[in-house]
């Protein structure tokens, strides 16, 4: 008797673990029931996808049937998409058309999201707005204490992103004020900075690419955004391939898979071959074991390893700048990038070899000494970055203990830095073998 109970218990435990790994179905939750009803009214046919909570990725969509390569994942009718056309046909349209200088398509969408969120129950888009994240983890939203823990090149981009949203807010104040006739409340309280930041992050992290013809009432920035309710619950994986686009015949946005997916597993799409720095900056997450990931080396770090007394140093830096060899200097899973090694070879040129710099940019070898020095310097930079990353990981552990409120954001940077460390250790191993080969 005892035995059979033990087996049943084990079976139950296995089943529970399986469902935990597969994802917990959330389609019974009220917000999703309302969203599905709302989509159905706009012509969306119920597919095999169900909203679910997954252990590694959080909220996503699971499939209730096995998917084969070539299967249609989702087809979302045009009526369900939120575009600048939606904005113009709303009460904001007349104000946007009159406003000079013209607003950007991005600002028009931000304004619409803020206005609809403010409208609450009265908004026809409420079922969609209710399932949108309340907060985001794009780098622009992180605290300065957390941003300081990012690798130098990414920290710079995070600060630029923050400033860009601040500038958008500053330059849009007059336009927001012009909308006062539409609201009983003061527009200054509705269209405040945190509302704009939320709307900007919603568009930046969730829109699909959809080209729209240019309209005179908008500035010349490309009008390529569409928010796609339900479809935007699909998470990113660098290891899947999909075909996506607007189908003119069916007037729907469609995603077809080129990968297989087992029943009850999470369905992934690919946002593009992005490294983790780009994913964290633009989307607010990190992909584990991302094959596209790299660790960036700033030009300052690179130049620290070459003597300021080198008479040709200025000329070398100028050559690298002119030929775009001071950007995208990286270590990857396969070691230092060709760009990084080329930059190091140019900087390592002896006075007697300097005239050969063009040959190096074309990938030719100038001398064994130059090759050895470049590889040796790459190994030193890699070691420096390993130590720096380990030091930051220690700081993060300390901060996680001291600052409870920053824990979720610190965990993100910790994931990024841990992935960086794995890449750097792999690169150090590759360089060790290459250096052994040259000695």
UniProtKB/TrEMBL annotation:
Catalytic activity: N(6),N(6)-dimethyl-L-lysyl(20)-[histone H4] + S-adenosyl-L-methionine = N(6),N(6),N(6)-trimethyl-L-lysyl(20)-[histone H4] + S-adenosyl-L-homocysteine + H(+); L-lysyl(20)-[histone H4] + S-adenosyl-L-methionine = N(6)-methyl-L-lysyl(20)-[histone H4] + S-adenosyl-L-homocysteine + H(+); L-lysyl(4)-[histone H3] + S-adenosyl-L-methionine = N(6)-methyl-L-lysyl(4)-[histone H3] + S-adenosyl-L-homocysteine + H(+); N(6)-methyl-L-lysyl(20)-[histone H4] + S-adenosyl-L-methionine = N(6),N(6)-dimethyl-L-lysyl(20)-[histone H4] + S-adenosyl-L-homocysteine + H(+)
Subunit structure: Forms a ternary complex with TBK1 and ZNF268; the interaction with TBK1 is ZNF268-dependent and leads to TBK1 monomethylation.
An example Gene Ontology molecular-function term: histone H3K4 monomethyltransferase activity
Gene3D superfamilies associated with the record: Rubisco LSMT, substrate-binding domain, set domain protein methyltransferase, domain 1
Keyword check for Transferase: yes
Name recorded for this polypeptide: SET domain-containing protein 4
Family membership noted in the UniProt record: Belongs to the class V-like SAM-binding methyltransferase superfamily. SETD4 family.
């Amino acid at each position: 008797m005892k035995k059979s109970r033990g087996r049943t218990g084990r079976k139950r435990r296995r089943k529970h673990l399986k469902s935990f790994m597969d994802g917990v179905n959330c389609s019974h939750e009220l917000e999703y029931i309302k969203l599905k009803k709302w989509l159905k009214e706009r012509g969306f046919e119920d597919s095999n996808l169900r909203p679910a909570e997954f252990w590694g990725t959080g909220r996503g969509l699971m499939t209730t049937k096995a998917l084969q390569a070539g299967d249609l994942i989702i087809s979302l009718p045009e009526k369900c998409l939120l575009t600048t056309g939606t904005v113009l046909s709303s009460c904001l349209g007349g104000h946007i058309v009159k406003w000079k200088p013209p607003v950007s398509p991005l600002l028009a969408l931000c304004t619409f999201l803020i206005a609809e969120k403010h409208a609450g129950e009265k908004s026809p888009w409420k079922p969609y707005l209710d399932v949108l994240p309340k907060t985001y983890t794009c780098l622009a939203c992180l605290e300065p204490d957390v941003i300081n823990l990012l690798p130098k090149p990414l920290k710079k981009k995070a600060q630029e992103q923050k400033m860009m949203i601040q500038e958008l807010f500053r330059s849009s104040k007059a336009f927001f004020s012009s909308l006062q006739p539409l609201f009983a409340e003061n527009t200054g309280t509705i269209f405040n900075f945190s509302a704009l930041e939320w709307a900007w992050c919603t568009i930046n992290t969730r829109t699909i690419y959809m080209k729209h013809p240019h309209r005179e009432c908008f500035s010349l920035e490309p009008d390529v955004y569409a928010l796609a309710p339900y479809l935007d619950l699909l998470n990113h994986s660098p290891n899947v391939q999909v075909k996506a686009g607007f189908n003119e015949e069916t007037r729907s946005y469609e995603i077809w898979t080129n990968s297989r997916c087992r029943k009850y597993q999470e369905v992934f799409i690919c946002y593009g071959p992005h490294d983790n720095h780009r994913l964290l900056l633009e989307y607010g997450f990190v992909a584990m074991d991302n094959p596209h990931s790299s660790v960036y080396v700033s030009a300052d770090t690179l130049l620290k390893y070459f003597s300021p007394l080198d008479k040709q140093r200025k000329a070398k830096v100028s050559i690298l700048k002119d030929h775009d060899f001071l950007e995208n200097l990286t270590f990857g899973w396969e070691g230092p990038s060709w760009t990084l090694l080329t930059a190091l070879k140019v900087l390592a040129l002896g006075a007697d070899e300097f005239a050969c710099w063009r040959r190096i940019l074309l990938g030719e070898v100038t001398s064994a000494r130059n090759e050895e020095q470049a590889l040796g310097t790459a190994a030193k930079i890699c070691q420096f970055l390993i130590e720096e990353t380990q030091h930051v990981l220690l700081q993060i552990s300390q901060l996680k203990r001291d600052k409870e409120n920053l824990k979720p954001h610190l965990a993100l940077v910790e994931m990024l830095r841990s992935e960086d460390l794995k890449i750097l250790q792999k690169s150090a191993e590759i360089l060790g073998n290459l250096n052994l080969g040259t000695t």
